[in-house]
Design goal:
This protein is mainly α. It contains 15 helices and 3 strands. It has a 3-stranded antiparallel beta sheet, with helices on one face. It has 3 domains: about 45 residues; about 90 residues, Type II secretion system (T2SS), domain F (Receptor-associated Protein), CATH 1.20.81; about 250 residues, Receptor-associated Protein.
């Protein structure tokens, strides 16, 4: 089992640290909490035996899995499949991983055990589904389901990324333009206005002040931004920080709704795929929580898992968390009652993936005019503020001529 290095506080508020061996990160956190330790940070320790050669692209993993499925279905021996797939792999890191897996299988290890030594390449979901396929003699079918799952996950992630590319690009370009104006253009106006001998309008004073800060202390501003970014990054790695930041993201108008739909779609697709593959429901919920992508959603799943472990159905505990939409919990309840939970979860996943499509399209069309209006307002304010003294001077001259 993997080991986790942790740091936390006991009931007396004293800082402690150590290493705990557990099935998963969440299981380690729960075990520490039972012992009265409030976890601050926890990180998996990689031994030399489990150290892989780097992350594998989801696209490469999907292709590998689909080809693997076809070869197994054709009746080729496991070692031969891995040998062929390794020789065809263009990614050098993934090639080494496949070769290492083949060597372990040749030595008599199960495919599940061999894959589990490379956690960066093969997730818990992947490893557990392969184990279920080996145990049930349906490895080809499981691999096919895995390839479909990975392809859908890649498609879902690409939709969210595509929605973010446009606003991020526009905001970045606008920030550069505003910075150039503040550093290069406004100082010229400032030098020109120094000889007027009259007080400048308040908006003009604000622009000149900001320009002076960027010109003389721009490097300090840059350092401050980097420090804030790094601090937030490290804070997000803590249990409490991840929960708080993920919660804030879910409350952001429009974007929070999109992220919730993505998380619900991922939850339903993952749990549905695991359930259909024969993975036990408790283990499936544990894996689903780790792949939720949002700590608020993950905590809700783990709470529901505890309730299921105590003998309850899934739908009621999910509804009690108030994180999942009523439609999801109702459909899950119908799936439990009819004995078709996996099929129902996949149908809900299909529905929410379509909802993500619509949300992305709506977000893109909505953000475009908002971004243009905001950036136009900022640049317009700067232009008007810097020309206000000239307008005032023109008014003075016109009154003196009269």
């Amino acid at each position: 089992m993997p080991a986790f290095a942790w740091k936390g506080k006991n009931r007396m508020g004293e800082v402690q640290d150590g290493v705990i061996v557990s099935d998963s990160r969440d299981a380690a956190v729960l075990a520490l909490r039972r012992n009265g330790v409030e976890v601050v940070t926890i990180k998996a320790q990689e031994s030399k035996a489990t150290k892989t050669f780097g992350k594998v692209k989801a696209k490469d993993l999907a292709i590998f899995t689909r080809q693997f499925s076809v070869m197994i279905d054709a009746g080729l021996p496991l070692v031969q499949c891995l040998e062929i797939l390794g020789s065809q792999q263009a990614d050098k890191g993934f090639k080494k991983v496949i070769e290492a897996v083949r060597e372990d299988v040749e030595k008599g290890a199960s495919l599940q055990a061999a894959l589990s030594k490379h956690p960066k390449a093969f997730s818990d979901l992947y490893v557990n589904m392969v184990g279920a396929g080996e145990a049930g003699g349906i490895l080809d079918i499981i691999l096919q389901r895995l390839s479909i799952y990975i392809e859908k996950a890649v498609k879902l992630a690409s939709k969210v990324k595509s929605a973010m590319i446009y606003p991020i690009a526009v905001i970045s370009i606008a920030a550069i333009v505003v910075y150039v104006i503040m550093v290069k253009v406004i100082p010229v106006f400032s030098a020109m206005y120094e000889g007027l001998g009259s007080s400048l309008p308040f908006p003009t004073q604000v622009c000149i002040m900001l320009s002076n800060i960027l010109v003389h202390y721009g490097w300090l501003v840059g350092i401050f931004i980097v420090i804030v970014f790094v601090a937030l990054k490290y804070y997000y790695k803590t249990v409490g920080g991840k929960l708080q930041i993920d919660g804030i993201f879910l409350k952001i108008p429009i974007i929070g709704d999109l992220l919730r739909k993505v998380a619900v779609a991922r939850f339903c697709r993952t749990l549905g795929t695991l359930t259909a593959s024969g993975v036990p429901i408790l283990e499936g919920m544990d894996i689903t929580a780790r792949t939720a992508g949002n700590q608020v959603i993950a905590n809700a799943i783990l709470k529901a898992k505890d309730a299921v472990e105590a003998g309850r159905n899934i739908s009621a505990p999910l509804a009690e968390t108030k994180v999942f939409p009523p439609m999801v919990t109702q459909m899950v309840g119908v799936g439990e009652a009819t004995g078709a939970l996996d099929a129902m979860l996949n149908k809900v996943a299909d529905f929410y993936e379509d909802e993500v499509d619509n949300a992305v399209a709506g977000l893109t069309s909505l953000m475009e005019p908002i971004i243009i209006a905001v950036l136009g307002g900022i640049i317009g304010f700067i232009v008007v503020a810097m020309y206000m003294p000239i307008f005032n001077l023109a008014n003075v001259f016109s009154k003196s001529d009269e």
